Amino acid sequence: MSATIVIADDHPLMLRGLSDFISSKGYTILGKAEDGKTAYNLIVKHNPDIAILDIRMPYLTGLEVAYECKKNNLSTKVILITFDNEEHLYDKAKEYNVYGYILKEFAIEEIETCIEHTKRGEPYFSEEIASYLNSKLSYTDTALIELLTKSELKIVKLLAHSMSSNQIAEHLNCSVRTIEKHRSNIVKKLKLEKSHNALMIWANLNKDLLESVIAP
C-alpha cells in the first residue's frame, strides 16, 4: 500500500531531490513547502499519512509543526530530517510523537525504510543515531574518569559543544593530527562505530553527564 506525503525543506535542492526520490518509489506527494507554516497548512488541508519535515525552517520549525499536529490530534505521522544531533532535539521529537528522525546525510539512503516503518506505526531513527540513543548515559562520571585520560575528557567535552577538530586543536594549542589521534582512541574506548560523526553524536547525547565530570 502506498502512502500520501507532504514534504517540507527550506533548501530547494534538498526539497526537489527528496520529492523526486520519494515519488519514484511510488508514494504520492500531496504538497511541498519551503517553510513550516506552509507545511502545517498543507497537513491540515490534505491530511496526509506522513509529513517529512526539515527541523530548521522559517516561521515554524519541524518540531513546532510536530507539536501542533500532536496538540490538534492530527493523524499525520511526522518524520524529521536534520543535520542536528543535539540531545534535547531527540527528547522533544519523542515527546511530540515523531515517528522518524533521520540525519540529512543519510536521508536518501534511509527515507524509504523510514516511511515503511512509519506506515506500520513503528518509530525509526537513523542507525547512526539509534545506538547512541540506546547508550545514552550508559556511563557514570566516575566510569568516564577511569576510562578516559584528562586530555581525552577535555576533547570530548569540547565536542559536546559542537567544536570541530580544528577548533579544539586551536583551543588546546596542539595539532589537528593530535586531536584526531585522541578522537580515534576515545572511539575505541567507548566502543563506538567508526564513522566520522560517531563521537560527536555521543558527546552531544551525553552533554549533561560530561558537564558533571571533573577531570582528575
UniProtKB/TrEMBL annotation:
Domain Response regulatory: 4-119
DNA-binding is among the record's keywords: yes
Domain of life assignment: Bacteria
CDD domains for the chain: LuxR_C_like, REC_YesN-like
Modified residues (4-aspartylphosphate): 54
Transmembrane segments: none
Keywords (A to Z) from UniProt: DNA-binding, Phosphoprotein
Name of the featured protein: Two component transcriptional regulator, LuxR family
Naturally occurring in which organism (per UniProt): Bizionia paragorgiae
